[in-house]
Specification:
Helix content: under 10%
Structural class: mainly beta
Shape: elongated
Strand content: 25-35%
Radius of gyration: 15 Å
Oligomer: single chain
Largest sheet: 3 strands, antiparallel
Distance between the termini: 29 Å
Order of helices and strands: EEEEEH
Length: 88
Amino acid sequence: MWRGRHVWVMSGFTSLGDPDQFPKFSVTGIRVQDPLYPYGDEQWGPSPAPNALLTPEQLATQFVVREPRRWSSNLPTGYMLVLPLAKT
């Protein structure tokens, strides 16, 4: 989340190992949705296509803390994770 201005939504991932069965697994790809697609930014590059599968290294180039701006909301700088609850 970029101070309430922009967000990428993770819609899935690929991994070596099933996280539902094994506590240790490696994420090999992350599916993202970017509401700015097909637009991008000169500094950060083009937005990925809907449901694009990015490597962890590709995601890391974008998953950084952005500097606050005076017109941003009062949300703190950082990351927001929305995680599903464990099976009951």
